[in-house]
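stuck on this chain:
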Amino acid sequence: MEKLGLLKLKDMGEYEKEQGYASYRTIVKRFIGDLVLCNNIANIDTSIYDNMENGFHYVDDEGNERTEEEYQNDTTWTIDIEYDDIYQYYLCNVSQFDKEQALKAGLILSYSDMLDCDVLCVNHYGTSWDYVLTDAKLFDNWEELKKYEESE
């Protein structure tokens, strides 16, 4: 999995600075932008499940998580795809670069063939987005950030 590192900024919350990871709100604000809540999209356009990036896992008969490569190549196991529960759907338009960055941070994105736009799929509820941490690690300076991104 690719890594995403970000520099700490003044507008970031104290909680995410203390924890060392960017919040869901920060990633959405930086890479997604404007959102339109559209929770009914899953009922009228099932292509969002076919086009989903992140938000699913490959699981074998014994409940063990498998890689995508094992899913494609291993014929000895019956491997199913299990999707995360999605609680909210937001319509958005995201550039390819911003989509890649958001996916590295662990956000779940999809695409609606019917509406011809991207969909942010939110798999958590009940907690402010300021307190939901992503996989994007925070750094104080460029040198630390560059070293992190270049490491394995």
